[in-house]
């Protein structure tokens, strides 16, 4: 079957990416696998590195880059949002608090779905709100399972510590007390994509007076269950 699109440079770049799907690959291996001239492969690979579609490992071999992960996460966002609605409503009703789903977007986290507490004092976070990755239980969750380099970068100036994130990974959920905003408490748990990577955080938030100073003790179980339901919904939509 002819896989040519008629746009030569794109076809050649895709050949390089297809080869890297098998794992770390040297320049010589890329040349052998694609059948392209060495200067062409080298030029294409470096251009793909520039755009973060390809990266280099410790041995200098070419590997698929993080930009592909980010694009894949964005492609799954519609499924994430569609699946979030009923789960957040159930979580809001079970806890009596506002519920949200956050995704990381660069140096911020963005609310992509929410279910507000209908009456009384509440923490209102409209869809589209961008919040800091340096504070709050959702930020803790979105950072806790990152690779070492991004973890260290994310901890610079953060209101939480490496010990806090270690606890998040151990328990499988996070809590915060006045980290993002004075008087506000929250509990969050990770949502994983089909590959197992953490792609979002399910959260509830509200006044410390209601959630208490140990909100995880009261609400962690139901928040984790909701995150697991969303993880399962995404897995099924990918089947």
Describe this structure in words.
- With 239 residues, the protein is of the alpha+beta class.
- It has two domains: 8-64, Arc Repressor Mutant, subunit A (Orthogonal Bundle), CATH 1.10.10.10; 72-238, GAF domain (Beta-Lactamase, 2-Layer Sandwich), CATH 3.30.450.
- It is built from ten helices and eight strands.
- It has a six-stranded antiparallel sheet with strand order 5-4-3-8-7-6. It has a two-stranded antiparallel sheet with strand order 1-2.
- Helix 5 (77-95) runs antiparallel to helix 10 and helix 6 packs across helix 8.
- The longest helix has 24 residues, at 215-238.
- The two termini are 26 Å apart.
- The model has no long low-confidence stretch (mean pLDDT 91).
Q: Total number of helical segments?
A: 10
Q: What is the N-to-C succession of helices and strands?
A: HHHEEHHEEEHHHEEEHH
Q: Can you tell me the CATH topology of the largest domain?
A: Beta-Lactamase
What is the CATH H-level superfamily of the largest domain?
GAF domain
Shape: elongated
CATH architectural group of the largest domain: 2-Layer Sandwich
Helix and strand composition category? alpha+beta
**How many angstroms separate the termini?**
26 Å
What's the main sheet like? 6 strands, antiparallel
Percentage of residues assigned to helices? 40-55%
**How large, in whole angstroms, is the Cα Rg?**
21 Å
Class of the largest domain, according to the CATH hierarchy? Alpha Beta
Catalogue the unreliable spans.
none
β-strand number: 8
Strand order across the largest sheet = 5-4-3-8-7-6
Mean pLDDT: 91
Kindly estimate the percentage of residues that lie in beta strands according to DSSP.
15-25%
Work out the count of structural domains.
2
InterPro entries: GAF-like_dom_sf, HTH_MetabolicPath_Reg, Tscrpt_reg_IclR_C, Tscrpt_reg_IclR_N, WH-like_DNA-bd_sf, WH_DNA-bd_sf
GO molecular function: DNA binding; DNA-binding transcription factor activity
GO biological process, one term: negative regulation of DNA-templated transcription
Domain HTH iclR-type: 7-66
């Amino acid at each position: 079957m002819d896989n040519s699109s008629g746009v030569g440079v794109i076809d050649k770049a895709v050949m390089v990416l297809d080869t890297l799907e098998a794992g770390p690959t040297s320049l010589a291996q890329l040349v052998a696998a694609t059948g392209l001239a060495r200067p062409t492969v080298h030029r294409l690979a470096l251009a793909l590195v520039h755009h973060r579609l390809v990266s280099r490992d410790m041995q200098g071999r070419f590997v698929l880059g993080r930009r592909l992960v980010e694009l894949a996460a964005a492609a799954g966002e519609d499924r994430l949002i569609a699946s979030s609605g009923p789960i957040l409503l159930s979580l809001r009703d079970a806890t009596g608090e506002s519920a949200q789903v956050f995704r990381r977007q660069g140096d911020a986290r963005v609310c992509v779905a929410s279910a507000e507490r209908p009456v009384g004092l509440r923490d209102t976070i409209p869809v589209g709100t961008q919040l800091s990755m340096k504070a709050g239980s959702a930020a803790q969750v979105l950072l806790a399972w990152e690779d070492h380099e991004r973890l260290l970068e994310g901890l610079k100036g953060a209101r939480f510590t490496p010990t806090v994130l270690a606890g998040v990974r151990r328990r499988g959920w996070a809590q915060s007390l006045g980290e993002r905003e004075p008087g506000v408490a929250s509990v969050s748990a990770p949502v994983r994509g089909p590959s197992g990577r953490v792609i979002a955080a399910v959260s509830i938030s509200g006044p410390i007076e209601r959630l208490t100073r140990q909100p995880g003790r009261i609400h962690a179980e139901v928040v984790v269950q909701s995150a697991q339901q969303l993880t399962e919904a995404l897995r099924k939509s990918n089947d």
